[in-house]
Amino acid sequence: MPERKSWIIPVAILVAAAVLGAVAWYFRDYFEPPPARMLSLDSCDLHEGPCRRALPGGGEVIFAIEPRSILLTKPLKLRVEVKGVAADRVEVDFSGVTMNMGYNRPLLNNVANGRFEGEGLLPVCIRQRMDWEAKVILRTDRGSFIIPWRFETVK
After folding, report:
1. Contact 39, 146 (CB under 8 A)
2. What is the mean pLDDT of the chain?
3. What 8-state DSSP symbol labels residue 59?
């Protein structure tokens, strides 16, 4: 009788491995997102107003931070408009250019067709003047894009 049931354990292991493999495949973008296309640095000044950037293959991105003075430790209103391409996720990754300031990547809410808004916050820095990079990360129907802009803050 024990010999007849000896197949149950190997079959259960195979079924469990198949289920785990299917779950890992389904959530693969969560664990390892598809590679994003990094665009070159843009010279637009976010202190002067919204910045525009053309996307490869058509479309454009408009990025704005308010208040335009871009204050430290104060809520910043972030706005991204995506035109000519369908975006389903937008994040803004803030990083110090010359100093690691930790993970700071707010996810923006889709408030209208192609318009995303949210809030961000820059931490206080010991330096009088700090250079920052804001990378707009778009996940679109044509793949992912990273669009960087630089700006500075002064205490």
Report:
1. yes
2. 89
3. -
Exposure string over 62-89, b if 16+ CB within 10 A, otherwise e: bbebeeeebeeeeebebbbbbbebebee
The pLDDT value recorded for residue 115 is 97
What's the rounded Cα separation, in Å, for the pair 95 and 30?
22
123 neighbors 102 (Cβ within 8 angstroms): yes
- Among 3-7, 36-40, 66-70, the minimum mean pLDDT is found in 3-7
Q: Give the residue extent of every domain in the chain.
A: 1-32, 36-154
- The CATH code that applies to domain 36-154 is 2.60.40.10
pTM of the model: 0.76
